[in-house]
Amino acid sequence: MFSFLRRQGNKAEEQAAAYLKEKGYKILERNFSCRVGEIDIIAQDKQNTIVFVEVKQRKTNLFGGGLAAVNKAKQKRITLTAAAYIKKTKISYTALRFDIITITAGVLQHYENAFSVNNLTI
Q1: pTM of the entire structure?
Q2: CA 52 to chain CA centroid, nearest Å
Q3: Which residues are 39's β-sheet partners?
Q4: What is the pLDDT of residues 21-63, one digit of tens each?
Q5: Structural domains in the chain, sorted by start
Q6: What radius of gyration do the chain's Cα atoms show?
Q7: Are strands 95-104 and 49-58 parallel, antiparallel or unpaired?
Q8: CB neighbours (10 Å) of residue 117?
Q9: CA angle at 14 for the pair 11 and 15, rounded to the nearest 5°
Q10: HSE-CB for 49 with a 13 A CA cutoff
Q11: C-alpha to C-alpha distance for 31 and 20, rounded to whole angstroms
């Protein structure tokens, strides 16, 4: 069961990465992980903004869909992981952004600046 879900997740992440490339984003990293958590896609847009993307795939929106799955606890893990990425890579950027891409019943939706974080310590 786990390997099936992982394969489905990988397909969703591939679809999201292809979508971002089409929009002119440069994919910097996929599945970055550290002791705090994991980020599905780290990209850079045309304005040199580093974009941390969480990808969620669902069959239906019955239980709130993918967007609802990125709760405050998940957002905190993502932001702490983003800080670890920036510290590790020492990447230069003009801004940071946290996006969510949901794929529900094959339909991709991109939520730019889906959540923000105050006082991100890097």
Answers
A1: 0.87
A2: 5
A3: 32
A4: 999 999 999 999 999 999 999 999 999 999 999 999 886 565 6
A5: 2-115 (3.40.1350.10)
A6: 14
A7: parallel
A8: 16
A9: 90
A10: 15
A11: 15
